[in-house]
Amino acid sequence: MKTTRRIALLASSSLLAVAAPAAASAVATPFSIYWTAPGDDGTIGRATAYDLRYSTAPITAANFLQATRLGGVPAPSAAGTAESFVVSGLADGVLYYLAMKTGDDGGNWSTVSNLLSRPAQTADVGPSARALAFSTPWPNPARASTRWAYSLPTAMDVQVDVFDVSGRHLHTLASGRRAAGTGEWSWNLEDDRGAAVGSGVYFVRARLGDAQWTRRLIVQR
Question: Which domains does the chain have, with CATH numbers?
Fold first, then answer.
């Protein structure tokens, strides 16, 4: 039977800070989840709907429909497109699980995605509550663009650059002083001259203050 492709979800919730305990009724800080759009049949065509749900219990194929559906999720883009959605309005201090299915115009639905969990936490109460972090890229492999989430506990100097496997500098994603907070840096897979890079392995080196990360990225054209 034709069915849409299973989705792999990613989250930047790990970049959200854990602050002092608060009442569970408080509304938590919004967080983003990311995935790559599937096709109508595997990687072919275009799906027509997403069904994103959350629960305080782990979500499985057996209880997926009993989980609460999140509204406002946009319709699927073309297969292979990097998608994202900001989840908001969930109670603070509660552990949540999220999972998704995708459907096509024939009424077929994919299997359940991988399970994401949003740890119980309170809203960010200030720069001191944030952790210094630089995420892995998504999507990875990338075909048209990719991005990274970051978190800065205080204002600091940053330098984020892309290199090929020979160590040749290709592109600068960010440079200079940045204010405390969270955000994203994206790359359209072009070098500093505007030329598209080819398929292969690339490395992104991020220096945030005194800390440094190197992230591996695969580009597939």
Answer: 10-118 (2.60.40), 127-219 (2.60.40.4070)
